[in-house]
From TrEMBL:
GO cellular component: extracellular region
Protein's name in the database: peroxidase
Coiled-coil regions listed: none
Cofactor annotation: Ca(2+); heme b
Family from the record: Belongs to the peroxidase family.
Principal subcellular localisation of the protein: secreted
InterPro entries linked: Haem_peroxidase, Haem_peroxidase_sf, Peroxidase_pln, Peroxidases_AS, Secretory_peroxidase
Active site, renumbered: H402 (proton acceptor)
EC top class named in words: oxidoreductase
Binding site for Ca(2+) 1: D403, V406, G408, D410, S412, E421
Subcellular location: Secreted
N-terminal signal peptide: 1-32
Organism from which the protein derives: Chenopodium quinoa
Length: 656
């Protein structure tokens, strides 16, 4: 399947190669050219992440142990030369034959993903990215949160068993030494506790790794005194002193063995850790506090994905074409002239200077600025609201859109006043103000004057989308609040339901958003919620002053709408998404409906037929692209006209 490549480096090129390798480290620290949605447009109309999702899902349905396997595979890959898929390379001296990598896999699953992607876009998707994306899918399938993956990694060509042995931490490593190993890869103490626990919240451990703790702890000929007696009894039965080929669950919480959750931390606080390092993090002063917090709060759900994102940035290679499947390099030696190596060094240096900036917005902006987990606080409040009223999803989506389109994402829509935006006719049905007030009041108790109202809108909307079965997408925070709010500005900037597709695309373009963003944001906003009869009565009875209905409307839909919205007028509403069962889900049902002539608003139906947008609608209706791409569009919307300097309102309804 793979062909050996010889790499021969002359002594004259060694110095340049050393420079190149040094610069690779710098690229990893700056995240090089990694980006969200890197493969959009690079693989035809195919959704790379959806292809991987489907293959991993099939594997998970057959054997849910694949979650632990993929978590271990990514960790072992990223800790040796960075996340470059060098762990996949075959060869007598390659990483995968190192003792620390015995039992690592699932290589066949990665091969299956690669084979499928090579058929649809040869030589495009790197093995390194496949590992990271597949692991994210597995975490999600095991009950973990869906987190973003930045892609654009390239594959490494060097794989050495000796480097694996030198870089992979042993199960007997001390907490201080483990913290130092993680620190040298740009990961902090909290990342260490999260990645260790996340990796051990699923999967199994061979008895051979436990024997010393059971029968000869620190050469005492006794068991580890910190081990829970009940756990000791259970483990000694499964792993007798005479030896065994059995396995035990890494997470000793019954019912949690295959779930990515916080139960591992609860177990080790009760002395139920399996490996020495598991138990030590529950007791060591540098980590015990983190373990306690993760075991007693909901923080693990949010913080483990962030740690996985950081792990995926370790030592990445970018800018070099991935190897096609029929030319995957196997460990060997390759010829490289000093001139080509010097060129590589220059290229890598340039990579460190490349990057996109969106003001001072960044992910996890409030870490260290507020004693509480800001996003967790917002999640809890929005989740409670959602349990009693699922229409809050549509309300928050509309609020963010209407805020960002008038003066940027600055929470000016929240300001009270006779001439304020919220009193504009176009904002008459915007709601959710009390929910934002509740979130703000709670955050002001925890960290006064820190969290902006603008950020609360964006974070709360992301939570609502996820609760309605949409993807959990990233939110960049650090916005400040605007102090100017005008009815006139709202009426000038908010698109009416009768706007043409061309004018809508121009309007979105003026905000830095593409035609694709327009179709995604319109559909995402209308895949949930309801629309008042008055907004589309002309389509039912007097379309374009013809005295007749809009001919593009599905006949059965027309009959249904006329019953709900008589010509005499009504205070009724209809669902924006006319796909039965999809009314409260953030999914692609809306695009399926408008493809069948079931659009409610005029602009809804127009995007399904206009030459500028109909192909996008068709793709979103009949593929799995919407879930991922809507998240990207929401990120883009959240970047419109942001303020990163200025005040943070203490009360979202009025200026300080």
């Amino acid at each position: 399947m793979a062909r050996t490549r010889a790499i021969r480096t002359s002594s004259s090129s060694n110095a340049a190669l050393a420079v190149a390798l040094l610069l690779m480290t710098l690229v990893g620290q700056s995240y090089g050219q990694l980006q969200l949605g890197f493969y959009i447009g690079k693989c035809g109309k195919n959704n790379v992440e959806k292809v991987i999702f489907d293959i991993v899902k099939q594997a998970f349905d057959r054997d849910n142990r694949v979650v632990a396997s993929l978590l271990r595979l990514q960790f072992h890959d990223c800790f040796v030369r960075g996340c470059d898929a060098s762990v996949l390379l075959d060869g007598r001296g390659s990483e995968k034959v190192a003792s620390g990598n015995i039992g690592v896999g699932p290589y066949d699953l990665i091969d299956a993903c690669k084979d499928s992607l090579e058929q649809i876009c040869p030589g495009v998707v790197s093995c390194a990215d496949i590992i990271v994306i597949a692991t994210r899918v597995a975490v999600f399938l095991a009950g973990g949160r869906w987190y973003r993956v930045e892609v654009g990694r390239r594959d490494g060509v060097i794989s050495l068993a000796s480097e694996a042995e030198a870089n992979l931490p042993a199960s007997t490593i001390s907490v201080p030494n483990a913290i130092d190993v993680f620190r040298r890869r740009g990961l902090n103490t909290q990342d260490f506790v999260l990645l260790l626990g996340g990796g051990h919240t699923v999967g199994r451990i061979h008895c051979s790794f436990v024997m010393e703790r059971l029968y000869n702890f620190q050469r005492s000929r006794g068991s580890d005194p910190t081990m829970n007696p009940t756990t000791f009894s259970s483990l000694s039965t499964t792993c007798p002193r005479s030896g065994s080929n059995n396995f035990v669950f890494a997470d000793q919480t019954r019912g949690s063995e295959f779930k990515v959750d916080k139960a591992f931390y609860q177990a080790i606080r009760q002395g139920k850790g399996i490996l020495p390092i598991d138990q030590e993090i529950a007791r060591h002063p540098r980590t015990a506090g983190i373990v306690r917090r993760l075991s007693m709060t909901g923080d693990f759900t949010f913080e483990f994905p962030r740690a996985m994102v950081k792990l995926g940035r370790v030592g990445v290679l970018t800018g070099v074409r991935p190897f096609p499947i029929n030319d995957l390099p196997v460990l060997g030696r390759a010829r490289a002239s000093s001139s080509s190596t010097t060129t590589l060094a220059i290229v890598l240096l340039c990579m460190t200077l490349v990057g996109q900036s969106y003001g001072q917005l960044k992910q996890n902006y409030y870490a260290g600025r507020c004693s509480a987990n800001v996003e967790s606080v917002i999640y809890d409040i929005v989740s409670k609201a959602y349990q009693t009223d699922k229409t809050i999803v549509a309300a928050l989506l509309r609020m963010q859109f209407h805020d960002c389109f008038v003066g940027g994402c600055d929470a000016s829509i929240l300001l009270d006043g006779s001439n304020a935006e919220k009193n504009a006719p176009s904002n008459g049905s915007v709601r959710g103000y009390e929910l934002i007030d509740a979130i703000k009041a709670r955050l002001e108790q925890l960290c006064p004057g820190v969290v902006s109202c603008a950020d609360i809108i964006v974070v709360a909307t992301r939570v609502a989308v996820a609760l309605a079965q949409g993807n959990w997408y990233i939110v960049e925070t650090g916005r400040k609040d605007g102090y100017f709010s005008s009815i006139t500005e709202a009426e000038k900037n908010l698109p009416p339901p009768t706007i043409s597709v061309s004018n809508a695309i121009r309007l979105f373009g003026s905000k830095g958003l593409s035609a694709n963003d327009f179709v995604l944001l319109l559909g995402g906003g209308h895949t949930v919620g309801a629309i008042h009869c008055s907004k589309f009565l002309d389509r039912l009875y007097n379309y374009q002053n013809t005295g007749r209905a809009d001919p593009s409307m599905n006949s059965a839909t027309l009959t249904s709408f006329r019953q709900r919205c008589p010509s005499t007028g009504s205070n009724n509403f209809v669902y924006a998404d006319q796909t039965v069962g999809s009314e409260y889900r953030v999914d692609n049902g809306f695009y399926k409906a408008i493809s069948l002539g079931k659009g409610v608003l005029e602009i809804d139906q127009r995007i399904a037929s206009d030459v500028q947008t109909k192909s996008t609608v068709s793709r979103l209706a009949y593929s799995g692209d919407f879930a991922t791409q809507f998240g990207y569009a929401m990120i883009n919307l959240g970047r419109v006209g942001v303020l990163t300097q200025g005040p943070v309102r203490r009360n979202c309804r009025r200026n300080n």
